[in-house]
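re: that chain from earlier
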Amino acid sequence: MKRLTLTSLGQIREADIIFGDMTIFVGEQASGKSIVLQLVKLISDAGDITQTLKKHGFDWQKKVENFLSLYFGEGMETVWNKDETKVTIDKADFTPQNALSKRKKNESLFLIPAHRVVTLKDGWPRAFTDYGTSDPYVVKEFSEQLRLLMEAGLGSGKGAIFPQEGRMNKTVRDAIGTSIFGKGEVKLDRSGLRKRIILDVAGTQLPFMVWSTGQREFAPLLLGLYRLMPSGKAQKRNNINWVVIEEPEMGLHPKAISALLLIFLELLRRGYKVIVSTHSPQVLELIWAIQLIAKSKNAASRLRDLLDLKPKAFTYDLTDTIIHKKTFKTYYFSRQDGVVEVKDISKLDPEDPDAAVSDWGGLTLFSTKAADIVTEAVWESNT
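^ sequence. v structure.
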């Protein structure tokens, strides 16, 4: 999957997306980013999706519009106009009918949705069938994968769920622990009649709903990362080649977002291709810095300095891989008068005459405007 082109998909008039090893989507709310990400999942895993829906008792009665409603969510069946919508992936046309005709194959793309916090109910992942027909497929499937992960042994109650030896490199674990969970440990509580995830802070057990917003948002993301980063020597999960993460920064402090940046790069080092939708300028600051640093001498060393990484075998491998082997692309979903255009802003050049590029899809627009007005005010006050 190298290039996706589409016209008239929902509110998106046109898009031409060439994927990098890491691809970033930015844009306002309701600008179609989630629709495109779900479309990419459908293109990659159509056979697995249709078989999974059937296995759990969902029936679209051989009607394409019913299938679209089951997949994208209630009311979303109109995103695909049979007379106007055209989708091409690597020069091959794709339609919902293609999806329904695909035979089952192993999942190749793992999508962590923006609505991930709803997947944990009273501190335990919800089953696929706990959701209704109106809920998007990607939420149900992500939730089910977390439930299976917990049932397969992660929820055995032996030791902490986080931090856990053998799960992630210690550098990544420490970054998450320091910035998100502090001195707390994520554990399994089996004292009641139902297992649940709790946060143990100095012997005080905190149920899921009293955690901070950022901790609650990050917990299902953490479990998803555990699925992608197997314990032991395996670098990545068999068959999974793509990882999509929607709005990973929700509820997190900038220091915690820095830990996220390290996680993205670790997924790249392990061999995944990564797509992230975000409203955080911090994510684009990393990509912008990497692109400039890569042109300098001692680029890998400068990247370690940027990420506050101590020199060791893991960090040398990580930064060398990112600098010398990975590519980055950024797309801006620009909504005007109810219509969305998707623009390649991968240069991220602050001096570019195109405001979409220089303002990083609007993520730096306010700070730029504030700086200009403050500069003008200071100049006037000194004259």
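The two ends are 59 Å apart (CA to CA).
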